[in-house]
Amino acid sequence: MATPARPRRRADAERSIARIVSAAREVLGRDPGASIDEIVTAAGVGRMTLYGHFPNRAALVEAALADAIREGEEALSAVELGGDARAAMTRLLAATWSLVAESARLLEAAEELLPAARIRELHGKSAARVEDLIHRGQRQGVFRTDLPTDWLVNVVHYILNGAAEESRAGRLRPGDAPAVVIATIESVLAPPR
């Protein structure tokens, strides 16, 4: 009895998609302006295969960013966030920094093609984690309450991405970046005297 071809084709398609997304993350992580040809070469597939799964560059970049965020979420979910909110924020920022540094160029590619609202939506779990931690710190009296929480969450995001840009530009040494990020965000979140 012959095995139906349909499940095999689906498995092949899933492997092909995974190769393309992985190659896009790698190639765009080095050069946000990399061409589709560079991505298909890295993936070991043809242009028709890529376009069979992703109708345009924006769809591919979104899939690559979503994959990077999903992988980052797996890592961040292991960070211990209990206890003192300041100490938990420090642990979260230390773990987040390496993820931001790794995906900064991919994010740059996404910002060129995707609406800002879509990028915020993809980062929703991460933003919610920071927001929950800020709320807890406010209840503990260790984080400021005089500014809107949404603003504080966005400032954390801006500082992380700004540090990645400064590091990439050579104005902030990569080894110094985590401490600089943590000190800056701690000062932003500290209650005014």
Automatic annotation (TrEMBL):
The keyword Transmembrane does not apply. Keywords: DNA-binding, Transcription, Transcription regulation. This is AcrR family transcriptional regulator. PANTHER family: HTH-TYPE TRANSCRIPTIONAL REGULATOR BETI (PTHR30055:SF234), HTH-TYPE TRANSCRIPTIONAL REGULATOR RUTR (PTHR30055). Residues 35-54 bind DNA. Residues 14-72 form the HTH tetR-type domain. It holds the Pfam family TetR_N.
